[in-house]
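As a point of orientation, let us examine one representative protein, giving the amino acid sequence and backbone structure tokens.
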Amino acid sequence: MAPSDSAPIVVDPPTQILFQGVDFVAELLNLNVPQLVDLAALRGLPSHTLGRSLVDFLEEHQLLPLTSGPRRKQLHDTVHVLTGYGTDILGEAEVQAFLLGAKFHWLNAAIGLGAIFRLYHEQPPIPGFQQQVRARLHVAYQRGRDSCLEIDRWVVESQWERPLAEVRSTLQIPPLPPESAPSQENS
């Protein structure tokens, strides 16, 4: 189901504040780029291409594309598509760990720590939960280290029409281990 004007996307306050902060810093540092994601154009691409996979991901999760700010922000959901990580708090932390592994950036460290804080404080105490989180974040970090993705330099505009599997292979993004796959209720 695609997001519609009659059903606005609700973004939780911490995420909204984060987006505003990223936009503010990007404006100060002159990092903003023109809009990278054109849903109408990507929707017309064949299935299993990177572009169409992004559209399917956004529709499945009832999200709108991030269309302002720096490349890093606008490509956030594309990183979910490339890596296979979910959109729950753990999946968001895994995306940040992956990006930290690919190339350290203070923003990924800050967002990742915020996600971990939320995970540990919003999750009821479950034996072994913290160890599982640490193990999954370590795997995500290693997948980032093993990749050759440089999110700030990656020219996604020339990749939208390529098969997703081919893009992953070119970027050396290893397959998502089964134990890291998002569950249906949390993706």
Q: What stands out?
A: The longest helix spans residues 129-146. Residues 106 and 162 are 31 Å apart (CA to CA). Residues 1-10 have pLDDT under 50 and may be disordered. The radius of gyration is 16 Å.
